[in-house]
Specification:
The complex is a heterodimer.
Chain A: E1 2-9, E2 19-26, H1 33-43, E3 63-66, E4 69-72, H2 78-83, E5 88-92, E6 99-101, E7 104-105, H3 108-116, H4 156-160, H5 162-166, H6 173-183, H7 191-201, H8 221-234, H9 241-256, H10 261-269, H11 274-289, H12 306-321
Parallel strand pairs in A: 1-5
Antiparallel strand pairs in A: 1-2, 3-4, 3-5, 6-7
Helix pairs in contact in A: 3-6, 6-7, 6-8, 9-10, 9-12
Chain B: E1 2-6, H1 16-29, E2 32-35, H2 46-50, H3 52-69, E3 73-75, H4 78-93, H5 95-105, E4 118-120, H6 121-137, E5 146-149, H7 172-179, E6 183-184, H8 203-219, E7 224-227, H9 230-238, H10 240-247, E8 255-257, H11 258-265, H12 283-286
Parallel strand pairs in B: 1-2, 1-3, 3-4, 5-6, 5-7, 7-8
Helix pairs in contact in B: 1-11, 3-4, 3-5, 4-5, 6-7, 8-10
Classes of the chains: A alpha+beta, B alpha/beta.
Amino acid sequence: MKSTFLIQRYVPEVDSAPHVERYEMDLWDEATILDGLLAIKDQRDDSLAFRRACRHAICGSCTMVVNGYSKLVCKTSIASEVKRGRTELRITPMRTMRVMKDLIVDMAPFWKHFRDMEPWLQPDPKKVPGPNEEYRVTPEKLAPSRKDLNCIQCAVCVSDCGVAEVDSHFAGPMALAKAHRFVTDPRDSKRKERLQALVDLGLWDCAHAYNCMECPKHVDPALAIADLRRISVQAGITNNIGARHSAVFTKSVGRTGRLDESMLVLQTVGITNIAGQIRNGPQGLRMLMKGKLPLPMVQQERVDNPKEVRRIYEAVASGEER
Amino acid sequence: MKYAYFTGCVAKGTCPELHHSTVELAKVLGIDLWEMTDATCCGAGVIRDENPELQIALNARTFAMAEGAGMDIVNICSTCQQNLGQDNRAMREDPALLERTNGLLAQSGLHYSGKTQVKNLLWVLVGDYGLDRLKEKVVRPLTGLRVASYYGCQLLRPVEDTGYDDPDNPTSFDKLVEALGATPVDYAGKTRCCGFHILTVNEDTSTKMAVKRLEEAAEAEADIMVTPCPLCHTSLDAYQPRATRMQGSSVRMPVVHLSQLVGLAVGLESSDLQLNKLMISPQAALSGV
């Protein structure tokens, strides 16, 4: 099978800017993109730099961006890209990290976010059994973290995350899924402390874009983040803007069946937060002038039967109490 | 063609031009819309963050009403599409959850059996209505207009719940743009996030994301962007002056709703489409058509 590789090349110490090099290759039908890169390195240009090791989606080394989307290239066949309608393979390094050479990036910030999660079990010393015994946990009790355990830290999710792309402070999907793994482990004793720390590490900064849902190991970090938020609220960690936004939103829909957007912004910022309200003033005014700002409460849409909606809220709440 | 029309909250709130232009467009195309005035908010993933079962119960109520009326749902918002799609699949794949949820609906005299389909207007136009039929309705071809179709993120993912297009190489929107006589523009950010869902929580990061999308479209020399979602539209249009000022960008890009762009091509006037409600006027970009 003939294929065209367009690979971004860049040696920061030598080149003033990245450039693209084109390689026409003729490979076997089942070849992966990694096979192609290895063939290029072997036959065309041995200076091409990229990371790889296991070749079967275990080590998580060979993540790069293929035609705009991050992939483990050992797990991605050239044929699958052709089937998508791509005639060329445009390969660039991972997003969100500094390029060291060609397709190799500096992953130090990624590992810092990982370490920030204290990714090790911190059990209550009094409950840890003696040296000749296992600290047992049933598969049922570990079910909530089952998917998190599949993570190989390949960074596909982080490289595709739109928030991580512009905000280096955001912990990112991999680290948050790792946090979920320990928060939901019944043997861990630092649950509350972990949850409290997550507020500053970006728990509420995920924008629900779901780019991380195409995880090569099916960890589904976006669902882990949603679950962490639920656990965090249930644990009473509600004095932060994210939890407030979520609570105000849910309450607003419970009142009328529809979201009161104007009220949502007012209350999330905080009615008594005068500085915050003043800061939002010009935007509110701009939208008001365009007829795009319904007055809170007064011009709020309601469903035909808001009572029915309230009944469902109560029924769900009482079901939980039981 | 008849659909249960799920407006969502924003098209009845801060983006009234979206609802208005959708209704006008449906009239021209001969699509019957039964507005679901009793349907609640989809939860937007925010109610799910608080309480997943509550969001599912609210959406089951909506599905049951559409199923009772014998119609599939058309929505005009990517967040509605994603959340309705996810909760619909959750119930289809988990009979115990469906039964439990039906228990909550019983007192309202509602029952959901899992049949309702949920489609964004884009897929109704491309899939059900058909581009050939749409072409026949075009009386004002948008010749020469360079359009950046903004698929955004939530319309396409998770693919198990949407399944109408390839999230890694979507083509439906560009094909529709072509059917209207315009020129689709390929650009880096077309399926990446606009930042809307953290606009209130983390405005700096959110506006950085929006500005990046606008700049990517401008770099590809688009005259205009088009969105299938009022939340993307809010980030990209309503907040554009604030976002570009905050992030020190000089980009200025008109952004229209899907219903407005199609409406223009099928002969609706700018007053029918309420183009005057857009923060960034598209008049200059549209002067050639």
